Amino acid sequence: MKEEITLFHLLTMTSGLQVGKFQSSKNWVKFILEQPVIHRPGSTFEYNSGNSHLLSAIIQKVSGGSTASFAEEFLFHPLGIKKYIWVKDPQGIHEGGFSISLNLEDMVKFGFLLLNEGQFKSNQVVSSNWIHEAKKPYKQFKDEDRTAGYGYQLWTCEITNSNTKIEYYYANGLYGQYIFIVPKLNIMAVAKSYLQDDQSSAPKLFFEELLRSWKNE
C-alpha cells in the first residue's frame, strides 16, 4: 500500500507508516520508507515525525536545492527572517519534523502570516487557499472539553460557548514552542519555552484562558 501514500497523507499524519526511531539510523529517509504500512493511507491519524521528514526530503528532491534554501527564498526572506538554526540528517537533508530554532520575534512573524491568511506587510507570501486548507481538521478526536484535530502539520481545536462555536489552531514545536491563532477573535499568541516533562501545559493554559475570557464577554 506504500504506492498509495500521497503528500496529503504525509501532511496530515495519515500515511499509515509504522512509527520508528529513525534518528538512530544511518539513513533516515531509507529507514522511514522501509517501515511497514500498518494502516491504509488516509484511514488513521498517528503522529509520526517521519512523515514530516519525508516532506523535507521531497522538497529537496523536487527543488534541486536544500529545504533551507527553498524556505529562505519563498518564506524566510519575505518575512525578514535572517537567523535560524536547522539541523540536518546524515544525508544532509534538513530535519522535517523538528530541530529548527527561531527567535521569538521571528515566531511572531509566522503568527501574523497565519493570522492574516498568508499575508505579511501587505505581501501575499503564502496562498490564502493553502492557509485555509492547512487549518482544516482532517482528523478529529475528543480532548477534554474541546474537539481537537489535525490539519497540514497544524493542530486544530474547536470549543462551543452558548451554542456559538470558536475555532483556533496552533503550531507545536518540541519542548514547548507554540504559535496560537484564533481567526474569529483576531488573536495570535506565541510561546517559547523548554518543557521536558509536560509539553501539553501551554495549549491547556491557552485553552482555559481563552474559554474564561470568552465566557466573560
Textual characterization of the structure:
The chain contains 7 helices and 10 strands. It is of the alpha+beta class. Strand 8 and strand 9 (177-182) form a beta hairpin. The mean pLDDT is 90.
Helix content: 25-40%
SSE arrangement, N to C? HHHHEEHEEHEEEEEEH
Could you tell me the strand content as a percent range?
15-25%
Shape: globular
Count of helical stretches: 7
Distance between the termini: 51 Å
Q: Low-confidence parts lasting 5 or more residues at pLDDT below 50?
A: none
What structural category do the secondary elements indicate?
A: alpha+beta
SSE arrangement:
Layout lengths: L6 H5 L16 H6 L15 H15 L3 H13 L5 E2 L13 E2 L2 H12 L3 E2 L2 E2 L3 H7 L4 E5 L2 E5 L4 E7 L2 E10 L3 E6 L4 E6 L8 H15 L2
Antiparallel strand pairs: 1-2, 3-4, 5-6, 6-7, 7-8, 8-9, 9-10
What characteristics describe this protein?
two-stranded antiparallel sheet; 6-stranded antiparallel sheet; 217 residues; alpha+beta; globular
What's this, in brief?
This protein is an alpha+beta fold and 217 residues long.
